[in-house]
Amino acid sequence: NRVIVELEPSAIQGDLMKAKVEATDPDGDEILYSFRWWRNDKLVKEGSDNTIDTETFARKDTIVVEILAHDQEGSGVPYKSAPVTVGNASPQILSKPTPLLNQSLYDYHVEAKDSDGDLLSYTLDIAPPGMAIDKTSGQIMWNITSNSSGIHRVKVMVEDGQGGVAWQEFEISVPSSAQ
């Protein structure tokens, strides 16, 4: 028996990991598989399911799957995958931009979460002059002046300090009567 084991996709917390198996049987018999999933050298799941949900896993956890291929005549030798380390999950922006309700002040609190629990940092990549964002809270404030009329693009960046990034782009339309 020849067995090749591969895990896909790359491990990020929350991904559904799948064991991809290629095997041949010298007799041409149907091959059945049993899977044993290991997290940080501890068995966490076993059976016929070739997937594992990594929702409760954390960055830097190690995942290994052991596969036992067998046919009607008996079991073969167990094969283990190469270890895969769970990577950093990017933050997610949960909020939607607020519409312009006040003709003199734009106020929007960007809400984001990071499933790894990393401290998030907020910045404005694209913004009209005078718009500011609080780096730690995500609160955007912009005092609108008589020179602010028109359509303004905004791009908010949220970073988790571990290489994970999320962004949100939107436009704010300021009528010419704004002051």
Q: How would you explain this protein's 3D organization?
A:
It contains no helices and 17 strands. It has 179 residues and is mainly beta. Strands 3, 4, 6, 7, 8 and 9 form a 6-stranded antiparallel beta sheet that branches. It has a 3-stranded antiparallel beta sheet with strand order 1-2-5, with no helix packed on it. A hairpin with a 2-residue loop joins strand 6 (62-71) and strand 7.
Largest sheet: 6 strands, antiparallel
Mean pLDDT: 87
Rg over alpha carbons = 25 Å
Beta-strand share of residues: over 45%
Distance between the termini: 78 Å
Write the layout of secondary structure elements.
Layout: E1 2-8, E2 16-24, E3 32-39, E4 42-47, E5 51-53, E6 62-71, E7 74-75, E8 79-80, E9 84-85, E10 92-93, E11 105-109, E12 112-113, E13 121-126, E14 132-133, E15 139-143, E16 150-159, E17 165-174
